[in-house]
Amino acid sequence: MLRLFGTVPQGQTVFLALANAAVGDLAVNWAAHIYKLQLDSRAVIACLCSALLRRLLSEGIPAMDYIHRGLEADVRSSREGFRRMGALKGALVLRILTAGRSVLLSDVDVVWLRDPMPFAMATLSAHADVMVSTDCLSITADEEASPRRRGVNRCAYRPGNGEGHAAFNTGILAFGVTPSALAAAAAWLALLNTSDSSGLPPGHPSLDRNLDDQFALNSILWRGFRNHHDGTVLAARPNGEQRPNGPYASSGERLIRVEAERSGDGGGASPAALPGWLEGWALLPGRGARPTGFVLAPLPTRLFCAGHLYWQQQHAEPHECLAVHTTFTESGVAGKVWRLREGALWLLDPPTYWAAPSQGFLTFTPPQPKLPLPPERNESAPAAFSDRSGSGWIPQDALRLFPRLAAHLELVRRHRLALRDALALALALNRTLVLPRLLCLCDRAEGPSLVLPQCSMGGSDERLPFLCPLTHIFDLPRLLSLAGEPGGVALREHSFLRNPLAPPDLRATRTVAVVQSSAVAEALRATGRVALHTGTTDREARMALADVKAPVLHLETAEGIFGGWANERSRERFEGLAQRHFYGGSWCCSSWDPPTYGSIQYADPMPTRAVIV
């Protein structure tokens, strides 16, 4: 910490992250992007375990000893451990603030694409005390100028909003060096540290077993940003004072007033102080009069991009993103790493990852959705909820009522057949398979109302078809572990050949194989064209492609291209791999009813067969 304070003078900003060995690779990737932006002199990763500290120091990455026993493993699997980590995070933030430095805290699954300091300093100089990212998935809603009583789901923090859900995300969180910012940080810490339930009223957020650092901050903000006479969000003037409700003064003004304690003026205001507010200020003796609130700046959605926005709405294009947070991502750390690879944001792969294997790569064009899109609803089908909870539909009713869902399942069936056949050919040809960009027609979520009937994520600007996360279709860790098996198939992400780290000659030396009927393919080969016929066997494929030496072989289509194996042993080996790594998976969810919650199993391809000739 002393080293850091030596390079970050008072009044400047510390870039801070916390991590342990369970997310060590993400931490190193976070640091790699910080180095690219030349911000490493003001950055530090607080290491919660000795294993990560040793690793970072050995690699020359700015790290500090913040070791606490019991936090070596993945803390997300432990409510108590995750809450404890949040409290340690809050304590470190408060320590830096009281030393006169502002803090820009981010999770290690955040990637910084551009230097955020010009934006951050402009916002802090406009008298914002706290800045926080959000889970708002709609740039349109985030920038809406006309006030409405009910805000868009996850985005209901606009001035004038009195109803609707606002989702703040501590993945990116900044505090200025002001009394109000100190009070907010101390309240956050005090709430996380509250373990003695004596004297706490029923419903106090610290009594919730699921309380973590994000829930704790949201508990403060949810009670404070509408703690005004009419119960609506109130904009703050650039000097931090309240001003009458209405649209923001300009598109760049994003300040709202969080009222921490009031005298009780009726309406929607609460005379009680916000959770942790009084207890937090007690942690700061000698700081003078206690602030009555603070000014919050929700960070712009188009600049501080959630994972759903970046990958599914922007198709992994940066657009205006200053930072990308891998939220709305399934499959844990493996899922986050894969999404970062797809976005060309993963910087840790060794040179061997990019080198062409001896037999090269195999790519293919995936099935495309049929357009125009089906309607949202089948107007002739009963629309009433049909599950036991009365808030969703049993799968067969959902499929009748929502044609887009049915079309999505059919498209996924085709995707899975094409990928299975491409895997079989990659194994037969000993090539590494580069997965394609898969388009989908229906998003997935645990709550039926979040994606049905429209099939796009509720409260987002998502358009159909969208770039489908691989986790929407497969169990990603199972699929990727295919490469680790003897005789398995190595996989690469869909952006692999477009990544600047890939050798340019790979993109320039692609051979395209036409896929046609047997007679047409034979005629094309007679003219010197590279061609395969649908239903080709492994032996036929090797014979037809014996003279193809290009590093990249591209199939015009893979759907139905594979017809079987020349012997039973090869079939058994591949089907064993497919059972362990490929088959299975489902769409979720049309219902809240356990045990399946309205999940619909994807159709697996028919098993491959042995073709003895």
Can you describe this structure in just a few lines?
By secondary structure, this protein is an alpha/beta fold. The protein is built from 20 helices and 23 strands.
Describe this structure in words.
The chain is of the alpha/beta class. 31% of the residues lie in helices and 14% in strands. It is built from 20 helices and 23 strands. Strands 3-2-1-4-7-6-9-8 form an eight-stranded mixed β-sheet, with helices on both faces. A six-stranded parallel β-sheet has the order 16-13-12-20-17-18. Helix 10 (307-313) links the parallel strand 10 and strand 11. It is globular, with a radius of gyration of 27 Å.
Major sheet characteristics: 8 strands, mixed
Low-pLDDT segments, ≥5 res: 244-252
The oligomeric status of these chains comes to: single chain
The 3D shape can be described as: globular
Helix segment tally: 20
Report the mean per-residue pLDDT as an integer.
Answer: 91
Q: How much helix is in the residues?
A: 25-40%
Strand content: 5-15%
Structural class: alpha/beta
Question: What is the rounded distance between the termini?
Answer: 72 Å
Instruction: Report the C-alpha radius of gyration, rounded.
Output: 27 Å
Strand order of the largest sheet: 3-2-1-4-7-6-9-8
Task: Count every beta strand, where a strand is a DSSP E run of 2 or more residues.
Answer: 23
Q: What structural keywords apply?
A:
eight-stranded mixed sheet, 20 helices, 31% helix, 613 residues, 14% strand, globular, six-stranded parallel sheet, alpha/beta
SSE layout and pairings?
Layout: H1 2-7, E1 13-19, H2 24-36, E2 43-47, H3 50-58, E3 63-65, H4 79-98, E4 102-106, E5 110-112, H5 117-125, E6 130-134, H6 139-142, E7 168-175, H7 179-193, H8 213-224, E8 256-259, H9 277-281, E9 293-298, E10 304-306, H10 307-313, E11 323-325, H11 332-342, H12 351-354, E12 361-364, H13 395-401, H14 403-429, E13 432-434, E14 439-440, H15 448-451, E15 466-467, H16 476-480, E16 491-492, H17 504-508, E17 510-516, H18 518-526, E18 531-533, E19 536-537, H19 538-544, E20 552-555, E21 562-564, H20 568-581, E22 586-587, E23 600-601
Parallel strand pairs: 1-2, 1-4, 2-3, 6-9, 10-11, 12-13, 12-20, 13-16, 17-18, 17-20, 19-21
Antiparallel strand pairs: 4-7, 5-11, 6-7, 8-9, 14-15, 22-23
